[in-house]
Amino acid sequence: MNTQRKVAIVTGASQGIGAGLVKAFRDRDYRVIANSRSIKPFSDPDVLAIPGDITDRSVAERIVREAMSHFGRIDTLVNNAGVFVAKPFTDYTAEDYANTLAINLNGFFHITQLATTEMVKQGSGHIVNITTTLADYAIEGVPSVLASLTKGGLNAATKSLAIEYAKRGVRVNAVAPGVIKTPMHSPETHAALASLHPVGRMGEISDVVEAILYLESAGFVTGEILHVDGGQSAGH
């Protein structure tokens, strides 16, 4: 087994930012483990698709087990899987609450705990959490309590883990995007969403991917919450 080439795990990898990350890591000659509930097999032998619900610990265990079995190492984990439900606070249902916490928090916890264990063994690794700028800077007219509750928690966890593992070779960072032009947003909403950003446009998938690639190569950066939000955070 060739264990010299780097290996990245990407959750939520079937479309949008996740699919962009799979391509970007392959362009850098990483081998990739791609997970989502609807992920399809890749023709590329250096991309291993593992379908399944990342909220299920057994799925996280399979991802890490297959990564080690096929590729022998884990260098990077990008916790990209997530959900955003925009409703007034009093309109959220118990199902909304449970589903958001399961995907945004459980989906982070299980895979990160297991991947970190392997990274510590090899003495190096990098974890990137995709959060949201709304966790730090709420916007009038954009109800976002469940996103702030969960993704704000990931921002805090990012800093905590960064310090806990700083001396063991594992870096932990987050990217906090504004509104990104993904299949999640229908074209008729784009003009209104663009207006939320001081730069006057929505973010592109490539904006987030490039931020993650920067963090991947920035060996002296850990515990950082990198806002990729078209000036939203500065505007506050």
From TrEMBL:
Keyword Kinase applies: no
Swiss-Prot/TrEMBL keywords: Oxidoreductase
Signal peptide positions (record): none
Record bears the keyword Oxidoreductase: yes
CDD domains according to UniProt: SDR_c
Pfam families for the chain: adh_short_C2
Highest taxon above the source species: Bacteria
Record-linked InterPro entries: NAD(P)-bd_dom_sf, SDR_fam
Family: Belongs to the short-chain dehydrogenases/reductases (SDR) family.
Protein name, entry field: SDR family oxidoreductase
